[in-house]
Amino acid sequence: MKPNLVIGNWKMNGSQQTNEVLLRAVLAGQKNDAHLEVVICPPFPYLASVAAHLQHSNVVLGAQNVSATTHGAFTGEVSASMLRDIGCRYVLVGHSERRALFGETDEAVAQKFVAAIDHGLIPVLCVGETLDERRAGITNGVVTTQITAVIKHAGIEKLTRGVIAYEPVWAIGTGETASPEQAQAVHRHIRGKIGVYDEQAAINLQILYGGSVKADNAQAIFSQPDIDGGLIGGASLDAASFTSICDAARANPGGTA
Ligand code: PEP
Fold first, then answer.
1. CB 216 within 8 A of CB 206
2. Which CATH superfamily hosts domain 4-251?
3. Is the whole model's pTM more than 0.90, yes or no?
4. What is the pLDDT of residues 30-41, one digit of tens each?
5. In the chain, what are the domain boundaries?
6. Considering only Cβ atoms within 10 Å of each terminal Cβ, which end of the chain, N or C, has fewer?
7. How far, in Å, is the centroid of ligand 1 from the Cα of 248?
8. Which residue in 119, 20, 32 sits closest to 71, CA to CA?
9. Which residues are the active-site residues?
């Protein structure tokens, strides 16, 4: 059975002092469970100190972004090999905030995805539609385009070594959540699209939901058959909420694999 996955995306929040308090409480709430992998993605400056905290725990480290290039004169960039070196196992690519605020195109996201895979990281490819796109009835087309861009660049084999996070843009940080049925429908669509290339890989692929997941809606979302966990923003900054969300993912193991 594939494990569920819960990823806390701290975004640009925290300090040495608040991180320590938060991590202590998060780690105290974790249970040893092979059916759930928990990941924390702090801002870059805190990766090393968070890595030290997570040593000897079953929570693993992720980053929020990665450069598509390997090394050299790219001021301000951080490479995949550096992230591996510091202890990251996962990295987010194509988060909607990166796409909307920093102009990341499907092509740039695809290059980052490949850089991550090629350097031993597990990329978490974030896809999702805006509210206008949902209202226009083109949600499935939008996520298909975003995923196809990566398949074109990386190939299906590399794509399925990563994770996909379906994150409707209108639900991120807004308090609005896709209903469990809305989320399930898009997850099913994504799995079906991947299945056209490789049926078994589609079954094994972890597809996460993200967008205002909270302690009180996590259970309903994670109980959907094609939802294999969550990408959690705001609620990952509150240890009690994050712990409840992890518990909800533990209570709904399995998915379709
Ligand atoms: C996110 O950052 O990916 C996210 C889903 O944020 P939030 O949970 O705050 O909506």
1. no
2. Aldolase class I (3.20.20.70)
3. yes
4. 998 888 999 999
5. 4-251
6. N
7. 17
8. 119
9. 95, 167
